[in-house]
Every structure is written in structure tokens, then in C-alpha cells.
Amino acid sequence: MGEKPEHGRMRTGDEPGNFAPTNTIDENAAQLSRYVEYAQTDRNAWHVDIVAHSMGGLISRRYIHAAMPIYPDGKPQVGHLVMLGTPNRGSSCADLISIPLELAGKSMDALRELRPVSVLRFNQVNVNRKGVPFSILAGNPLPPVCRMLAMNDGVVAEPSAIWTIEDHAVERTIHTSLTGAAQFSSFVKPRLAIGPGKQGAQDKLAALLPGGGGGRLFEFARACLEFLGLADPKDPDAGDFSKVAMLAPGQVMEIAIPVEDARNFGVTFVAANSVSVTLADDKGAPLGSNLAGKPEASQLFRGILVDRAIARATWKLTLRNDDKVERQVVLSTWSNAR
């Protein structure tokens, strides 16, 4: 993290398609603590601001709640937390990919902790902002993916990013581009220079709710129902069909995909940007593609959406690895998203 990563190195996952082990949020928060201490010493600064992208926002929130000190001047160590595309209510994409990985005997803590049910629990615990103002920039250039029928940045739906944060903005930028120079100039820099002012009354009220600072009222209600045994506490399932596939260099693999009558249908997958995926119906007619080398191939969660009613059949998904090394693909299908 920062300009001197040797003073604090997070492990949240490398390039798309790399399923190496990662740190937990707690472990990454400990690394953030190391880096903040270094930055204070290096710059002779009592207070610092944090700009965090994606899961870095959850890590920063954990650090603020659990470890950040309040100094003798009465002010928090962190002057402002500015988040970019943080999944403050989780990502449905993580549901669809994490579960088949675990069924295959693999697990990525970072992916598991992005699941909505995991972030719900996170929000119920990490409620203390200690006076640190929060801001969030959400991206929404993409149509529905991963069973979330809301505009999104390819990883995080707009409502998940905004959550209960009063100081927020939305722009048509994909997840991986929210750290660009334009976003820094228009959104980040003004908040570091002058701040957004005091937190609004709505934000103060949210801080009083379980998951507050924090969780929404419906999250609190759901937690109560689960405690009383009146709601199903099980995590969302992995989708209609899932598979973990290994592709040799240059290999083409065809996978039969069972589909049922549904309002809509989608495929969500994680793979290196050298992997192409195409979907065809039972008559061989093309339904969609996500091709190697295209801009959409650089996204963490990739997908194909069939946004119309479909009938029961067996479709065909074709995977092609254009790389010179073996590549893994983790995929899930879903339907009837609302």
C-alpha cells in the first residue's frame, strides 16, 4: 500500500484469475496499522487521511473501529476516510465465485469476506467511526451482473457502495478505473483539502443502529429474525450451476449448461484476461461473449447476461485459453434476478 509497500503489505488478491491465498480483513488491518505508523513518522504528522479502493475501504473501517487511537488534542488519528468503489454491503459476485471455490477445496479469505452475508456481520460489529468522516465514490456504468439488478461498476452495485454514507457521489466509471487521476482530482482531492463538513443527522442516526456507522434498519431486522429462528440464516447459494475448470495453454473446452424456465439468465466467472468465454443456446445461436483482450476481460468478475425470458434447455458454454500457461476458470450461472 502507499508509496512504500514494504512498511505494510496487504494481500487481497492479485490479478484476475489468480486464486492464491489472501489475508483476512483483520490481518490486512494490522498491515494498515503498520503503514499509518510509518507515514506519521516519515511525515512527522499527527493525523493522516486514508484513500481506499474496493476492499481497502472495509479494511480501513475495521482499522478505525478496532485499532485507531484518539489523540490528546481530541481528534482521531485518521482525519478522513475516502472510499472508491468499496462494497459496504458486499458483492453478490463473491457469492457466485466463493462457494464453488470452497466446494473445490480452495478458499480465498478476501473473496469469502466480500459475500453480502459476511459484510452484514462485519457491519454489525464495526460500528465505531470515532468521529472520522466517511466519503464514497461509486461507479455505475454497467448493466446488471451477478444476480444484482442494479447498475454497478463490475464488482460493486451502486447501493452497496453508497450504503449509509451521506457524502457520496456516483459516476459512470468501472471498478478498476475508480483510482484514476480524474477521480482523484474531482472527488478525492477536494475532500482531503477541505473535507465535506460535518456528518449529517442521517449519518448520526445510522451510527446508532446495529451495523451502524453503519448498517441499515433492514439489516438489523433481518439479524433479529435470524436470532429468533424466523428467517433462514443460511448463506445465499452458489447459483444454478457451478464449475471449476483448468485450461491448458491453447485449450478449448465446451461445457453443457442446464437452464430452466426463467425471466433472465446470467453467467458470472473469474478468469485471467487471456481466457475467452462464449455462450450459445441449444440450437447453436450465439447469446453472448466475454472475449480475451477486450476491456471487459480486465474486470475481476466477468459475465454474460441474457436479459429476456428463457425456456428449459441445455446450452453450451465455450472456454478458450489463449495464454501460454495453464489457467483456471471458476464460474456460476444464475437466473430470475430481480
TrEMBL record:
Domain named DUF7379: residues: 24-95
Region Disordered, annotated ranges: 1-24
Transmembrane region(s): none
Annotated Basic and acidic residues bias: 1-14
Record-linked InterPro entries: AB_hydrolase_fold, DUF7379
Pfam families: DUF7379 (PF24096)
UniProt name for this protein: DUF7379 domain-containing protein
Upper lineage: Bacteria, Pseudomonadati, Pseudomonadota, Alphaproteobacteria, Sphingomonadales
